[in-house]
Amino acid sequence: MNINVSKEIIMREVSSIKPYVRNPRKNEKTVEQLVKIIPVVGFNQPILIDKNGVIVKGHARFTAALRLGMQEVPCIISQADDEQNKLDRITDNKISELSEWVNDELLHELDSLNIDIDLDGLGLPKIDFEELEFNPMEMDDNGAETPENGSEGLSEDLKAKYKEFMRKQEEQRQAQVEKQLEKAEAHVAEAPVQKRQYFKVVCEKCGHEMFVRADEVIEI
């Protein structure tokens, strides 16, 4: 099979590049994120253009370059005909939508980032320990930590984070219990002492005397 491989990357002035007039993609949100990310990671993916300088792939990157004030961008000039470029333009956008994230590996990568950049607009997953239905760390009979069934998919970092989360949750629970106890003790201490009243009762027949609590007196 003869597959065309583009080997040459050239720098082109942005003024010489033209967007495809019937571009079927709305990419404003993508452009907004690229404007934030490109200054951090660089413009490292060439724009594919045809022989007339019309964009085949890379409209969002091109618009981001304009907003960032870039004068030149790396490009690859497609040697394909118009029909092949149309097919490439459509399938490239759709094929990328078929990919799925392995969330645990993605969370591990995100957690290891030390770059201060806002990625909220990308819709990336976040660790929500409240949603986890299992505790990845349990104690065996000897007090050693062992992973429970179903936790093998979590990375060691996430296991440690979840364990710390559970520890803090337990601390909060204990603090709430202690606070409730303190309130109860304060309420008891402030409550007035109820003095019990007693009545002296004398038996009419034998003269025996006894004392009866007021709440035990039965009216006949």
Description:
By secondary structure, the protein is α+β, with helices and mostly antiparallel strands. It has a domain at 10-96: Alpha-Beta Complex (Conserved hypothetical protein from pyrococcus furiosus pfu- 392566-001, ParB domain). The protein has 5 helices and 8 strands; from the N terminus they run E-H-E-E-H-E-H-H-E-E-H-E-E. It has helices spanning 28-41, 59-67, 82-96, 103-111, 156-190, and strands at residues 10-13, 47-49, 55-57, 72-77, 138-139, 145-146, 198-202, 209-213. The strands form 3 sheets. The protein has a 4-stranded mixed sheet. The chain has a two-stranded antiparallel ribbon with strand order 5-6. Strand 2 (47-49) and strand 3 form a beta hairpin. The radius of gyration is 37 Å and the shape is rod-shaped. The N and C termini lie far apart (113 Å). Mean pLDDT is 76; it is low at 133-137 and 143-152.
Task: Fill in the CATH topology of the domain at 10-96.
Answer: Conserved hypothetical protein from pyrococcus furiosus pfu- 392566-001, ParB domain
Strand content: 5-15%
According to CATH, the homologous superfamily of the domain at 10-96 is Conserved hypothetical protein from pyrococcus furiosus pfu- 392566-001, ParB domain
State the major sheet.
4 strands, mixed
Using the 3D structure, state the CATH architecture of the domain at 10-96: Alpha-Beta Complex
Number of helices: 5
Average pLDDT figure: 76
How many strand segments?
A: 8
Q: Can you tell me the CATH class of the domain at 10-96? A: Alpha Beta
Distance between the termini: 113 Å
